[in-house]
Queue: 2 jobs
Job 1
Amino acid sequence: MTSATRRRADAERNIEAILDAALARLGRDPSASMTEIAKAAGVGRVTLYGHFPSREELVDTLFDRSLADADAVLGAVDIDAGRADEALARLVRSSWRVLDRQRTVLVVALRVLGPERVRDRHAAVFARLERLLRRGREEGAFSAAAPPGWQATAVYSLMHAAAQEVDEGRLDAAQAAEALVSTILGALGGGPAGTGR
Amino acid sequence: MTSATRRRADAERNIEAILDAALARLGRDPSASMTEIAKAAGVGRVTLYGHFPSREELVDTLFDRSLADADAVLGAVDIDAGRADEALARLVRSSWRVLDRQRTVLVVALRVLGPERVRDRHAAVFARLERLLRRGREEGAFSAAAPPGWQATAVYSLMHAAAQEVDEGRLDAAQAAEALVSTILGALGGGPAGTGR
DNA sequence: GCTAACCCGAACAATGGTGTTCGAGTTGGG
DNA sequence: CCCAACTCGAACACCATTGTTCGGGTTAGC
């Protein structure tokens, strides 16, 4: 398994620390410097370049990891079970924070890697949500008045907004999930009947 | 009137061009260089510095102008007339594009001017929307389940998402307004009764 | 305990952005 | 028509960032 890239334990630990620090710093400021990231990771700048030959490579790895994270969380939700609106509520509740972190990285990746290399890799994650929305539309749970692509964007954008509000202390994390779910289901036009209370 | 800052006509024209170019370039990339902006404005770099002594000053002016724009458009809508949901629909229809441009500048201003100097100036524009939401809540047109601050953020964030989708060609500008209004009213929990079709 | 893998500070060249100065040319407005 | 206002390219010093090299020190793992 790990025989191909046999690394020493401390190296592995540092790589983790670097990626975590990169996520945090780049999330706040997409143009954060390598020096800044290295310092935040508690690591020398040379060490950083030892593991990631360039800024581009670092962002690329970070993007991959964040994509895999999102995919894992999304995959853990049984999207096809039950009514579509209930499935969406489960999905939102379990993954809005991860999905937002993923979006944070996306902003950086767009700058560093360019739009082309980002779109298709990102589309894979997005597709899960769109499939669920399509099912809900067919079941009549979601409104067919608005374009499906727009609805997916709206859901995504609301999850991001909620995460940001929580991050900046303007919204209580506990009540955020409920507010988010009810707002999203409303936005999709399911009406109060399906949502219940 | 214009006696205080008596400028020549070509200077005035260049200043306009610079601000327009700055809006466009900085909107796409918040760290766009002065050289880039000058070139986009069809103006020499020296001329740019002649009118705006520093990058900070340029962003500051741009921020002011964009805030004034937004305020003007918002002010032109009669917020207190009719039902709250209808008033909101009017507001959204007439100002989502301007309001999004305003948000674009806000991102840049946050980086360059710092959060403190931005918040209060920005709050003035935001307040109009919040007041309308409060009225709608009292009238029962909007749900009281979610926090009011969150609802305002949600509306704002949806307007931004729609503008971005249109900018990137994924959503038709003509149908965007309708989709946006129905999504926003739904998100606020008005239910399908108030919205009609 | 030995060796290879790893860490790291210092110093390097290269690049690109900022803000300024100079000097010559162009243009608006009275 | 004439002058002040304005434009602009070139070149400047300054600074931050990127990515590299060197050389000595530490540590994991067998």
Job 2
Amino acid sequence: MNSRRPSPLPPPKTPVAAASPWRTNRERLRDRALKREAVIRAAAREFNRKGYHNTSLDDIAAALEVTKPTVYYYVTSKEQLLFQCFVAGVEQIRAAFRAVRELSVPARERLNAVLRHYGEAVASEFGWCMVRAEEQDLSPAMSRHIKSLKSEVDQGIRRLIREGIQDGSIEACDPKMTAFALAGALNWIAHWYREDQSLTGAQIATAFVTVFEGGLRPRRGALHIDARTRRRRARGTLAR
Amino acid sequence: MNSRRPSPLPPPKTPVAAASPWRTNRERLRDRALKREAVIRAAAREFNRKGYHNTSLDDIAAALEVTKPTVYYYVTSKEQLLFQCFVAGVEQIRAAFRAVRELSVPARERLNAVLRHYGEAVASEFGWCMVRAEEQDLSPAMSRHIKSLKSEVDQGIRRLIREGIQDGSIEACDPKMTAFALAGALNWIAHWYREDQSLTGAQIATAFVTVFEGGLRPRRGALHIDARTRRRRARGTLAR
DNA sequence: CTATTTCTTTACCCACGGGTAGGAATGCTA
DNA sequence: TAGCATTCCTACCCGTGGGTAAAGAAATAG
């Protein structure tokens, strides 16, 4: 079905998804920028559900109860659509960096704040697009642009780690690898969050930061069990 | 160019990529299974470079210096190709679980061993396919199969974490979220490893395990700096 | 009330790529 | 040497989907 439809428009059966300013709120939301934004959001949602390559522009148009050329009226190409979604997502993270720059707390706390926002951004509607926008799907120019934004975020995290090591709030470590580990864990949220929304983005982010901070190795003061039990359990004879 | 080529086969200009058993080693590698395997590997490499959707079967065939129908002689569909790559990758991880089951060491050490193998698998030639094989690109049947394999790995990690908490080798934590964080960090390696191969898979895995174990918060006995410096640095007045 | 701009549609183009039909080599068997 | 099986190729099919031309509807201007 290539942007075709039975001539008489199907009556808007359900009261429309509220994100579609066309047939509803016709008077107020006439503004062009708003419509464009709605297109981007609809694209994000569809990419989210079916992936970039499995989403056709007809799908996006259908989600907005519009036809394909209308989408093209607000956007020049599919790749631009993906790009805009990416930017919308990454902008949230950049904002987190800006906000944190003002705080006069140890770098680890600033890092934690950034990571929390990072996690929430990945769990947001643009998370998938932000995380999965691949250079391979984009023109060289946009690919470069995305790469530089990604790199900016990466460098920001590394910087906070270095500062944390300097001011003593972060254990000495390799900033590059550590940044990769942190960002990777958070990015991956986008992969499972759709399937498992039992927690909010903020809750996940908090849980992750807790893991990052403490690590797996038990800290002193943790509960102790007697040596015999521990040895037995370590053998793997633990009941299932 | 749809599997077409100038009639006289272009002379094999370069001495062939060694992974293509067709024109070289004609006698020995005549075995069918080997050829099929070569097809899978070639597919993995191409998916790696350009992504699943941006790789055509003509591309894969070309990489093997063969034509498309030949590929179809060894494989029934593109999605099966992806599926096989996935299985090849995940099998390495399952093997790690099996190997570790015999060890009588604390669960944290067993977990670390698994994570190290996990990381190496992700950095291997099948890593990308394993990590990025999405249900959306596959038939329902294969999608289910992949999901169950993924879930098996996930549950395996959670189990080791629970056991570690039990035997005291792992700090108390939420096994589910912790498993997500660990697996996410490792999975993400597939995204940047192609671009940055400055470390081997084993080195990366080791570095990551170090981060996971210790966490960011400085442990007692770490180096201390005097309180004044720390406060000053924490202000963000640190020279860049 | 006409003219012009803005927005949306119908109807179409066509490259790409997954997949196949059928035949030609090649080799193996008798 | 005929006959059968395996392997690979040439040539093709056709659905999908990104993208466009051009005309119609709706709003705005003059």
